[in-house]
Fold this sequence. Notes:
Blueprint: H1 3-20, E1 25-28, E2 41-45, E3 48-55, H2 61-73, E4 76-82, H3 84-89, H4 93-99, E5 101-103, E6 107-114, E7 119-128, E8 134-141, E9 147-153, H5 159-174, H6 178-189, H7 215-229, E10 234-236, H8 237-246, H9 261-281, E11 285-289, E12 292-295
Parallel strand pairs: 3-4
Antiparallel strand pairs: 1-2, 2-3, 5-6, 6-7, 7-8, 8-9, 10-12, 11-12
Amino acid sequence: MTTESESQQHLTGKWQLARFFKHDEVRLEPYLSDIQQRPDLLLIQPGKRVAIEFQCSPLSPSKLAARNAGYQKLNVTPVWVLGDYYFQHMKSQSQVALFANWSRKWGWYLLFWHTQTARMELWSQLKIDLLGRIGYQRYQLTAAGESRFIESRALCFDVWQIKQLRQQITYGLRFRTHKYMKWQNFCYMHNCLLQTIPNCCFEHAIVPPLFGDSIAILRYCLLILISDLGQQSVFSLQDVWEMVAELGQLVPVGQFANCNQRVVRNQLQLVLEAWLQTLTVAGYLQPLTHDTWQVTRQFITDP
């Protein structure tokens, strides 16, 4: 897609969006001098202001975070609506994390605007699988707040995904791909091998789009750190959070530029607690309180 076509799409989309939000007071490209930013649209609603950003071309995480930070200084809510470039290229979890937001009604979601049809599209209930593919439900939204279901692109788990992920690890190590070598070096430091991920790490394969790489890798790294504590050792949920933070350079977690971090933490805690419950049922852990566990069986054996 050329810069010229993107510019035309952006210009057309701004005017279409202004008509779409006609039930609100709409200001087109107002200059906010306090932060030196100019949103595509500013909606004046009872008790709040909403900045609509119609994004048609690639945008770096740092620039998006900077624009959101500016709006937050003025107590303006940013809403990012994506154009055709993103609609056509939104294929993996790393792309989702940049613009995804969360609501009680829609779960993790993305918004798209189609200039050819002047329609708003919602991808809701976003999920990812072991290979980083995304699943979602598609809806058309109206200005009146109504929604029309289009289709469901649900993810299904099968053993092929495990074989594919193990194959990716083998090839990644064979060709010394950077991220696979980082993971392997971590494993070496703890007397383990990346190739020997236990099958329990592949359970509950469909998860929210919170992780920069496969959830199986993060689970394996957590298992290694918990195993290092030693059998009969006791650890807490806070210890698990510290482990996740320690692993942040290996497996990015919860790096959403467009979502409240408290929401991200709450959603991530649900995933971690479900994982600890799985390990408890499997006999690896013994719960002591609602947020402490004892290691009852070693996870990893030395290669």
